[in-house]
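User: For a benchmark we're assembling, each entry needs the component sequences followed by a predicted structure for the full assembly. Here are entry 17's components. Please fill in the structure.
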Amino acid sequence: EIVLTQSPDTLSLSPGERATLFCRASQSVSSSHLAWYQQKPGQAPRLLIYGAYRTAAGIPDRFSGSGSGTDFTLTISRLEPEDFAVYYCQHYGSSLLFTFGPGTKVDIK
Amino acid sequence: QVQLVQSGAEVRKPGSSVKVSCKASGGTFSKYAFNWVRQAPGQGLEWVGRVIPILERAEYAQGFQGRVTITADSTTSTVYMELRSLRSEDTATYYCARVDFSSGQPFYFDYWGQGALVTVSS
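Assistant: Structure for entry 17:
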């Protein structure tokens, strides 16, 4: 079973700054099986990135994903006020079909 | 547009059961798998299971085997999740989430319902 870890737990930044979030898998995974979601308080998660780097429909181009093997990154190039939220990575596997990382909270510094 | 509309909040006593529904609109029901993902208060996301209506097949996370049943009614485009033998640890918001097989990459959730809070308390 693949285990996902995310770092940091919390990222305190100011609007306009660059945010870099990390997701590490316990073993090498297919890039096509890695996705990222944003969740704001009281709301359902929203798909941001799939296939490690493909941006979902309607997602601003300040969001980008990269990585391969065990290490993946979500980058927000310039934080907007609406980007302060919790971000989860997710993997699709053959045994436990869907697993999530524990999340990274991006809050306002 | 695509919508997944879930039933409302529920309160149940320990040992009882709950059944939550999710009505899909804005797409071809047979092209999708419908999943249930839960989130305990202040916690992360946990996959519960899924149903693939066109195959009439359901699959469950190991921790829920024997206690959960996920079904689909293609005539009403509605998916159901029944969780039995409820305990306090099952208190969570339960989300339905869609996977689109026609995308060629059925490895992520492209649309989510609004969530349904299930509270288990004596």
